[in-house]
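Page 37, continued from 36.
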């Protein structure tokens, strides 16, 4: 009789372990782990024509231009 009780308990434990392993997210039941820090976006625009500072400098140079080649 004690052998039968141990067998039933072992089967229940195995079933619970298999179910826990099959759930999305692993044993935590779908609980997500915190990720590392996100990569920061560049502080400056990537394209020169999107950069307001570049456009101001370009306009300043065009106004200052006396017609001579660059």
């Amino acid at each position: 009789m004690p052998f039968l009780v141990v067998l039933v308990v072992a089967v229940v434990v195995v079933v619970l372990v298999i179910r826990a392993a099959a759930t999305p997210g692993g044993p935590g039941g779908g609980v997500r782990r915190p990720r590392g820090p996100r990569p920061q976006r560049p502080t400056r625009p990537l394209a020169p024509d999107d950069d307001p500072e570049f456009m101001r400098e370009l306009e300043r140079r065009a106004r200052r231009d006396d017609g001579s080649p660059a």
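The CA atoms of residues 45 and 51 lie 6 Å apart. Flag for discussion at group meeting. The mean pLDDT is 77.
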